[in-house]
Structure formats: structure tokens, C-alpha cells
Amino acid sequence: MTITTNSVSQPIAKNPTLLITGATGSIGTALTQLLSQRGIPFRAMVRSPKDAEKFATLAGADVVIGDFNDATSLAQALMGIERAFLLTNSSEQAKSQQLSFVKQAQKAGVRYLVKLSQLAADKGSPVRFLRYHSVVEEAIRESGMDFTFLRPNLFMQGLLGFKDSIIEQGKFFAAIGDARISAIDIRDIADVAVAALTKSGHEGKTYTLTGPQALTHKDMADALSVSLNRQVTFIDVPSEAMRSALLGVGFPIWQADGLLEDYAHYSRNEASFVTPDVQAVTGNSPRTFATFTQDYTPAFS
């Protein structure tokens, strides 16, 4: 089933050759908005007609209902596609879903995949997220399709997961100590993705995407305090306390344990380096954490 939206200011391509998966998530939303603003037609794969409504006024969008667990629907979504952006929800099924997509993309004749991966992806990593991303990267390399891998660091917008405690208590909690991390704004990830999907010269490249500074979580709390004009405090907690808090707000066990592995990785200062990749690809400096806090002040208020 394909749902074609009504164009507002740009003509819609009847047969777009660019597919965006994960189109309703935070990165997918930023990415599709940028494509629309730049007059680049695309097909967005969503899970339901309700999700499709989000694109009803987005110029240049063609929407198809698709399910990563349904090979037939993937084949339909990929029909006529030459380039695709691969992103799934973070779940226990992510590896199998992405491997299925790679297989179907290869069958459909897709020439080029841009995959959202993660900084330090490695099959030997103690972090489950980094292991599965590495396995999918390897499958893409072996598929014969051209590719670009985007490996971002911790998302600045991940702090929105703490917004309730920031609003209600003026505090947020994590098991990271005073380690530094070069977190990145998802809007910069979307900028890089657009460049990789629409311009030549990125084939075969792996981009490690970071913000311009390596900050402690205390530094982040201080920046929030300035933007919100009230005190925000970061409190380091043991891993088990963080796990209990994640489970308490509804995180599945697999994902909660994965996040703890992520934070153990961060706590060892293994994600504290800064790279020039965002500026090299987009021509623009990555956004600072202070810019993020200023732009997202309403969300924390």
C-alpha cells in the first residue's frame, strides 16, 4: 500500500528513487524535513497509515507502509529505489531487521545504502549495540552495494529522556562519573545524511560524527542551568540504580542493559574524542551543546 501525500510547494515525484527508513523518528524527521526543504523527492517507509499522516503536508514526500519483519512489504517499499537510508528502532530485533533489509535491498537492485551506525562499532565490543551495528556493516560491505556508514556519538537529544526529572527535580542521573563525551546534535547527523544521500564522493566512507566539544555530564547540567535560568544538577549513580530507573520508566530489559553497556563505554572516556567529519562533509561546524540547550529550552521547561 502506497500513500502519496499532497504537495504544498514542491512537485511530488511519482517514482522517487530515494527511500528513507526510520522516517518518523527524531533523525528521520529531521532528515525528511531537510530533503523537503531542498526540493529533493523521497519515499518514506512508515509502519501505519497514522504514521503516514505526519507527511500529509510535507512537500516532495511519497509514503509507503512497510514492516522490517515482512520481506514482501520491504520488497514493495524498495521497488524502483536506487538509494536508501537505513535506520531501525533500537530493539532486540534491530540486527535481524537490518540484515533483512540489506538482503531485500540487494534483490531490488538498490545501488547505494547510507546506514546509521554508532561510534566505535565493532564485532568484539562488550556493547551489544556496537556489535550488531558492526555485523550489519559487514553484510553491507559484502553485498556489493555502495555504502556510507554514519557513526555518531551520543545524541544531545538523548538528554530529553531525562526531561521529567529535570523539570520536576532540577536533576538528572546517569552512571558515567566525570568522563567526557563529544555528544552530537541529531540535526547535524541529518545534515551529513542528506549530503551523503544526494552528493557523490561519499561512497565507501565511514564518518565518525561528534560534536565540537567533549563535555562531562556536569558540564551539560551547567549549560542547561544557563539556558533555563535555574539550577540543574547532574548526579552520578551506580549502574544498578540507573538500570532500575530505566526499567521503572518502561525500558525493555534488553535495551536497558544495552544502555548500561553504552554508559560503561562512555565512563571509560572511550567516546571523548572530537572529529572533523561533520564540517568536512557539510561545510558547517557541528552545533555546540549550548546551542542545543538554547534551542530546546521549551522542552525542559
From TrEMBL:
Superkingdom per UniProt: Bacteria
Alphabetical list of InterPro entries matching this protein: Ergot_Alk_Oxidoreductase (IPR051604), NAD(P)-bd_dom_sf (IPR036291), NmrA-like (IPR008030)
Alphabetical list of Pfam families matching this protein: NmrA
SUPFAM superfamilies: NAD(P)-binding Rossmann-fold domains (SSF51735)
All copies of domain NmrA-like, residue ranges: 16-253
Annotated protein name in UniProt: Uncharacterized conserved protein YbjT, contains NAD(P)-binding and DUF2867 domains
